[in-house]
Write a structure and sequence with these properties.
Structural class: alpha+beta
Radius of gyration: 23 Å
Strand order of the largest sheet: 1-2-5
Order of helices and strands: HHHEEHHHHEEHE
Distance between the termini: 77 Å
Number of strands: 5
Largest sheet: 3 strands, antiparallel
Length: 211
């Protein structure tokens, strides 16, 4: 009887171990973090996968910020033409070394960025890069709308600030929700690749054509 009980315990423990291995493998694929970092995050999150992802992304962002200070002199220029032939994109993506520039994962990232730009048509790279005259024009429209709704002035100021923040984020590449994974922004995706590849990665510029 005791022998049978030990076999059941071992079987149960084996299932737990296999489940943990699968979870670690999945988190590595989703975040690009190393095995040790994934294990630590899972321990800290007490097995909660969502919390572990948040921990890994935060740590990845911290590391990416440090790498972001390093100069990027290499990279690729990638083109993408949408299936209907009416939208085309050129995007320049920088990295630190020629070795990474030739890396398949880096080039795949550049292709994904070009495809995203074709689909969501960002006007600039960062929210702060959105043209001030464009924002000012939107402000006039928003203010007229709020005036029609009879909003008090002190509330209008707060609403306008919120609308501007949202407008800038929706217009800029890095703050847009990534077209292939709406749970993270393009900036999050690049940060994960920086953490995984180990080099600074920066979007140079892009051009989007549409007929």
């Amino acid at each position: 009887e005791s022998s049978r009980f030990r076999r059941l315990v071992l079987k149960y423990q084996k299932r737990i171990i296999m489940s943990q291995i699968e979870m670690i493998k999945g988190l590595r694929e989703r975040t690009g973090a190393g095995i040790v970092d994934v294990k630590k995050a899972l321990d800290e999150a007490k097995g909660d996968e969502s919390k572990a992802i948040d921990i890994l992304r935060k740590r990845g962002q911290d590391k990416a910020l440090k790498k972001g200070e390093r100069e990027t002199h290499e990279g690729v220029v990638v083109s993408y033409v949408h299936g209907n032939g009416r939208v085309g994109v050129l995007v320049k993506l920088y990295c630190e070394t020629d070795f990474v520039a030739r890396n398949e994962e880096f080039q795949s990232l550049a292709h994904d960025l070009a495809m995203h730009i074709a689909a969501l048509a960002p006007t600039c790279i960062k929210p702060e890069d959105v043209a001030n005259d464009v924002v000012a024009h939107e402000h006039e429209i928003w203010r007229e709308q709020l005036k029609t709704e009879g909003k008090p002035e002190e509330l209008v100021v707060k609403i306008l600030a919120g609308k501007e923040k949202k407008f800038r984020e929706e217009s800029a590449l890095l703050s847009q929700a990534f077209v292939k994974d709406q749970e993270k922004t393009v900036g999050d995706m690049i940060t994960e690749k920086i953490h995984k590849i180990g080099e600074n990665i920066q979007v140079g510029n892009f051009i989007r054509y549409e007929i």
